[in-house]
Amino acid sequence: MQLFRFANPDYLYLLLLLPVVVILYIINEIRKNRSIKRLGDISLIARLAPEMSKIRPAVKFSLQLIALSAGIIMLARPQFGSKIEDVKKQGVEVIIALDVSNSMLAEDIQPDRLTRAKQAISRLVDNLDNDKIGLVVFAGDAYTQIPVTTDYVSAKMFLSTINPNMVPKQGTAIGAAINLGVRSFSPGEGKSKAIIIITDGENHEDDAVSAAEEAAKAGIVIHTIGIGSTEGVPIPILNNGKRDYIKDVEGNTVISKLDEDILKKIAISSGGNYVRASNSNIGLDEIFSQIKKMKKQELESSVYTEYNDQFQIFAAIAIFLLLVDFMIMERKNRRLANIRLFKFKV
Predict the structure, then answer these.
(1) Using CA atoms, how far apart are residues 228 and 109, in angstroms rounded to an integer?
(2) What are the φ/ψ torsions at residue 166 (nearest 5 degrees)?
(3) C-beta separation of 119 from 252 below 8 A
C-alpha cells in the first residue's frame, strides 16, 4: 500500500543538476574575486565602494537554488493517497530469506556477496506486479525484515538498510529462516507460496533439510541460490580504520566457502531448484520465472486507488523564495544602511 508517490518521478533526475549549478556558482565567485584583486588592494576597494556586499549574492543564490529544487519537486507531482480499496489479484507469494552473516561480506562475488544479492532483489522488486513479497534476514537466528506485501516502494526502502550489524547473533541458521518464512505467509491454503534462500550455505546452527521437508508438507516450495566460491575467500573487515580479515580464536584467517551440497538438498527436499550465483547473474530472475509458472491464487490487498496532488505546497515555496530574492538587492542601499537585515561584516 503506497501512501506517497510521485506522478512524474522522471523529473526528479533534474535534481542531479543542482551540484553542477553550485560548482558553476563557486567558479564564478572565484573568478570575480580574482578580478577585484587585480584592481588593487581589497580593503581600499571596499572603502571606495561601500555599497558592495559579499553576503547578499550568496543569500540570493541560496534562495534561487532552494526555489529551483522546490520547482523540480513540483514538476514531479508529489501525491498522497486519499482513498483505500481492497482489491483481489491473481499472483504468488514469495518470501526471500537473505543471509546477512559476516561471511556474506566476502568479495568473491563483486562488490561483495551481500551487496550483489541486494541489487538482484531490488531489480526483482522493480519487475513485480500482482505478486506479494516478503523478506527474512538471518544469521545466527532469523528475523522478519519485510512482512509479505505489495508495497514495493517500502520493500526497496527496507532492503537498502540491510547489513550484518542488524542481527545480534552471528552464524548461519538456514533452518530458522525457513521456519520463520513458513510462518510469515498469509493464512490460507494454496500452491502459490515459495521461499527463495540466498546464502553461502555454511549452515552451523540447525537442521535445515528437516525444516525444508516440513515446509514442503505445507505446500511451500523452497528454491536456493548459492552465492560465493567453493574454493573460499577471506572475509574483509575494518580494524581501527584499516582493512583486515576476520580471524578465529587462534588468530587464523577465516576462509568462507560455498557449501552447495546442503543447498541442493534443501531444494530437492521441497521440490525447488538450486542455482549457483555468479558475478554476471545471481540467478534470482531464473528462479522467479519458475515460481511464476506455479498455480496462482487470489491475493487480497489494500491499495490506494485515488491520490491527491500536493505540488501546490512546493509551488508556493518556490514563488515565495523568488519574491524574497527579488526584494533583496545585491548591493547595499545607502538610504537603508541603518536597517541591519544582515548583521555580517562585509
Answers:
(1) 6
(2) -80, -10
(3) no
Residue identified by cell 504468488 is 92
- On whether the CB atoms of residues 94 and 134 are closer than 8 A, the answer is yes
Residues in CB range of 216: below 8 A, 6 or more apart: 222, 269, 270, 271
Segment (H or E) for 316: helix 311-327
- What DSSP character marks residue 127? T
Would you call 190 exposed, middle or buried from its count of C-beta atoms within 10 A (0-12, 13-18, 19+)? middle
Burial 214-233 (b: 16+ CB within 10 A, else e): bbbeeebbbbbbbbbbeebb
- Count Cβ atoms below 10 Å from residue 187 Cβ, excluding itself: 4
Look up residue 262 and give its amino acid. Answer: I
Nearest-angstrom CA–CA distance, 12 and 72: 7
Closest CA to 149 of 125, 183, 169, 124: 125
Count of CB atoms within 10 A of residue 267's CB? Answer: 22
Averaged pLDDT of the chain: 84
The pLDDT of residue 52 is above 80: no
How many residues appear in the chain? Answer: 346
Query: What is the H or E stretch that residue 301 is in?
Result: strand 297-309
Given a contact cutoff of 8 angstroms between Cβ atoms, the answer to whether 340 and 127 are in contact is no
C-alpha closest to that of 120 among 278, 266, 291: 278
- CA–CA dist 252, 88 (Å, integer): 56
- Tell me the whole-structure pTM to 2 decimals: 0.67
Helices (H), 188-292: 208-217, 260-269, 284-291
Burial category of 304 from C-beta neighbours within 10 Å (exposed 0-12, middle 13-18, buried 19 and up): middle
Cα 291 → chain centroid: 25
Report the DSSP beta bridge partners of residue 237: 244
- Burial grade of 42 (CB within 10 A; 0-12, 13-18, 19 or more): exposed
CB of 105 closer than 8 Å to CB of 236: yes
Are 179 and 95 in contact, with CB atoms under 8 Å apart?
A: no
Name the band, by pLDDT with cuts 50, 70 and 90, for residue 88: low
- Residue 106: all three cell numbers together: 566476502
The letter for the amino acid at 257 is K
